[in-house]
Amino acid sequence: MMDVRAIRNDDDLTWALREIEPYFDHEPEIGTPEAERFDVLTTLIEAYESKHHPIPESDPVELLHYAIEHLGRSQTELADLLGSRSRASEILGRKRGMTLDQIRAVSEAWKIPIAALAKPYPMDSEGAPRRKRTKGKTSAAA
């Protein structure tokens, strides 16, 4: 029997995320009990997150801006998670991509699904949407 349980609250979610974390470093072979467990936990996590922590569909940088502007997060908090203020600025400005370790750190701390943060996104040189300051807030340029 698999050691899996329902995810009913954020403590259960944290437990499930910790349980699947080793599978990111050593992906289980398809057809093994570990692969089945990974699939079940991933499905449970996705279902819980989509119901209790819905995030608007957008690219990872826009998700970070959304979290800062609407979910009570800050660029200082992001800098702490990423290792430096300059790194946070580079990522928010689309000058640098996030590493897998940074994605994991933000995902765990801010409860943003890893899959949403790991999506490919345009960098500044690729015509990414520019953000402008208006009335004390940052918004996407039209």
Structural notes for this entry:
The protein has seven helices and two strands, in the order αααααααββ. It is mainly alpha-helical. The chain has two domains: 10-52, no CATH class; 60-140, 434 Repressor (Amino-terminal Domain). The protein has a two-stranded antiparallel ribbon. Strand 1 and strand 2 (137-140) form a beta hairpin. Helix 1 packs across helix 2 and helix 4 (75-82) crosses helix 5 (85-92). The radius of gyration is 17 Å and the shape is globular. Residues 132-142 have low confidence and may be disordered.
Essential attributes:
142 residues, 434 Repressor (Amino-terminal Domain), globular, mainly alpha, two-stranded antiparallel ribbon, 2 strands
Sheet with most strands: 2 strands, antiparallel
Strand fraction band? 5-15%
Shape: globular
| Secondary-structure element string | HHHHHHHEE
Q: Overall pLDDT, averaged? A: 84
CATH superfamily of the largest domain: lambda repressor-like DNA-binding domains
Q: Which blocks of ≥5 consecutive residues have pLDDT under 50?
A: 132-142
**Alpha-carbon distance between the two ends:** 53 Å
Q: So, CATH architecture of the largest domain? A: Orthogonal Bundle
Instruction: Tell me the Rg in angstroms.
Output: 17 Å
Query: What structural category characterises the helix and strand content?
Result: mainly alpha
Which topology of the largest domain does CATH recognise?
Answer: 434 Repressor (Amino-terminal Domain)
Q: Count of DSSP helices?
A: 7
